[in-house]
Amino acid sequence: MSRPLRVGGMVPLTTLDYPGKLACVVFCQGCAWRCRYCHNPQLIAPRGSDELEWSQVLAFLQRRQGLLEAVVFSGGEPTLQDSLRGAMEEVRALGFQVGLHSAGIKPAAFAKALSGADWVGFDVKALAEDCQAITRVVGSGAANWRSLEHLLASGVEYECRTTVHWHLFEPERLLILARRLHRLGVRRFAVQRVRTARMLDPQLPGISLQASLPELWQTLGELFAEFVLRD
Ligand code: SF4
Predict the structure, then answer these.
(1) What is the pTM of this model?
(2) Full domain range(s) for residue 99
């Protein structure tokens, strides 16, 4: 039997993290990548200083049956924990829809988690050849894009999202990335402008300025059935 899910924190109520549903977010502890702009650096280590017991989370969810509609497993990188799949089943048995936020760090583990999810917010870091400059991990681009293929083949509802810090991303590369996603059949794409208040890499500029890019956003809006620009 696998160990209980390591949970680094929780947001008890959100309307933003699962489309159209009242949800809570469970932040899974631990990540294998080191994205320079990561805004949850406290969730990267395998063990956190403010962990919740999984049994506490379940007790909370039992009290919210009939009030909340979905539970989103976020991180960190949830799919790195063997116990995620079982935790998803427990949540489903309580009557909740299951959401997953992931960057698909390990494609086989991601594919396994995918089979337990109703909706996925999938983090496309960058073009595969550009990923390492963000994640600082060799091979991260291949893993990220392999997992994306699993997602698109699965039929599970999803949104692809890319976080942009303009110090790490050229607008031209974002356009190439979007066209590549379009060719793969991605229909829902969001660009999220980075939150600079807290980032893993202290060397990264605290501002992410770029001239307004109306033509780029218009082109992206035409490429996808649904496109969102998010701050
Ligand atoms: S932003 Fe990067 S380092 Fe931070 S949790 Fe996500 S994948 Fe891991």
Answers:
(1) 0.96
(2) 7-230
